[in-house]
Specification:
Length: 130
């Protein structure tokens, strides 16, 4: 219990689970969700590059839904799946609509089509070896 200025406040407890967590904390164990697992960064495949098109960071492109500036290209499938809320996602592009004054960055996973027009090229995430 904790003492407050006016009355005692009872802390909720889950019984044995709280006891186990207190014991683990006293031994210095970390909770499982606190551990940082290494991420595997994937290199986009040829199929991915075809789907992504020329949408590298800094690029501006236009289609029937708006004009977009590419802020980031995500090629980690786990991160792309989280951003797009779609387990099958292999990549995502973070864009901002430049035609709207209140355009907020958001993730898209639409493939590059012949209805998309590149207005300004971006910079590829990696340079070719000399």
């Amino acid at each position: 219990m904790q003492q407050s200025m006016t009355r005692q406040v009872v802390q909720p407890s889950a019984g044995i689970i709280d006891d186990i967590e207190r014991e683990d904390a006293s031994k210095g164990y970390e909770p499982e969700d606190a551990r940082v697992l290494p991420r595997i960064v994937s290199v986009p495949t040829v199929a991915d590059e075809t789907e992504i098109g020329p949408r590298y960071p800094g690029a501006i492109y236009q289609n029937v839904t708006g004009r977009y500036e590419v802020l980031a290209l995500i090629t980690d499938p786990a991160e792309a799946a989280r951003l797009l809320r779609r387990d099958s996602a292999r990549w995502a592009v973070i864009v901002r609509d430049t035609l709207r004054p209140d355009g907020q960055p958001h993730a898209v996973g639409m493939v590059w089509t012949n209805e998309d027009y590149l207005l300004r090229p971006g910079r590829p995430p990696y340079a070719a070896a000399a």
